[in-house]
Amino acid sequence: MRELTPDFSGLWIPLVTPFERGAVDHPALYRLVRQLANQGVAGFVVCGSTGEAAALSPEEQLAVLDTVRSAAGDLPLVMGLSGYHLPETLEWVRTLNRCGVHGILVPAPHYIRPSQTGLIQWFESIADASTSPVVIYDIPARTGSTLALETLRTLAQHPRIVAIKDCGADDLKTQHLIADGALQVLAGDDSRIFNTVALGGAGAIAAGGHVHTQRMVHVIALLRAGELPAARALWRPLLPLLNALFAEPNPGPLKALMAHQGLLLNELRAPMDAASEGLTARLRTLSEGIPALVAHARAI
């Protein structure tokens, strides 16, 4: 029998980590979270891939979590983690247990590419050690490991594995997971948000949600309410911008656009680098061309 679990539906923002002269820019991070918290988002993912977590020390990651918590109010927080050394990863999970997060976002171990049996052992060991719900991060482009449908169905039987950030680029697997209903399916590829939620997915963890946030929140709410024509009208202007945000490695393009908007400095940690001037100019044009969000006649 599954435990009662928190809800992961809606739009979650996988936060960027602002930097200034090489250090985490905590004041900019605080201001960003305060601004986004008022846009109707479901919560925040801290220290995910968009947050350049691989370039942050454990101490920096915990400090980032503290800043986000102080700014987020009552909104729930999910903490990203990654690794390939299971004992060290479990020790980090035990550290996060003391932080009181809403959930942890867990990818397959990178570089190793274990068997499906090995992947089950990895996720179940982490879920056993965690006191928070686990969101599987299915992203073979980063980890090199593909989670088979039957593997995910097995993992869904664990009482603390409750959702999946779906970056697997496998539409049939996505539809099966939604139909199964054992995991809340969250779109992880921004361009797939519309299709995933229209098919019954719970929401999205979307880097593009940093910009035109209210529009994306409304798209997801309309889709979940079955109001497809209204959702399409709001979604179509977003799609060219979302595609452009991933034309170069994330979060370079996103930070370039946000820097233009005065939200942070256009600074990343090596080996990540800034977006090209041509793409930056294109992003500005696309973002500024999206019509202002018009209030809906009835509440969503």
Automatic annotation (TrEMBL):
Annotated residues for binding of pyruvate: T50, I205
Function description: Catalyzes the condensation of (S)-aspartate-beta-semialdehyde [(S)-ASA] and pyruvate to 4-hydroxy-tetrahydrodipicolinate (HTPA).
Major localization listed first in the record, in broad terms: cytoplasm
Catalytic-site annotation from UniProt: Y137, K165
Pathway it works in: Amino-acid biosynthesis; L-lysine biosynthesis via DAP pathway; (S)-tetrahydrodipicolinate from L-aspartate: step 3/4
UniProtKB keywords: Amino-acid biosynthesis, Cytoplasm, Diaminopimelate biosynthesis, Lyase, Lysine biosynthesis, Schiff base
Enzyme Commission designation: 4.3.3.7
UniProt entry tagged with the keyword Lipid metabolism: no
GO MF, one example: 4-hydroxy-tetrahydrodipicolinate synthase activity
Pfam families in alphabetical order: DHDPS
Subcellular location: Cytoplasm
Name of protein: 4-hydroxy-tetrahydrodipicolinate synthase
Enzyme class: lyase
PROSITE patterns, alphabetized: DHDPS_2 (PS00666)
UniProt cross-references to HAMAP family, sorted A to Z: DapA
Lineage: Bacteria, Pseudomonadati, Pseudomonadota, Betaproteobacteria, Burkholderiales
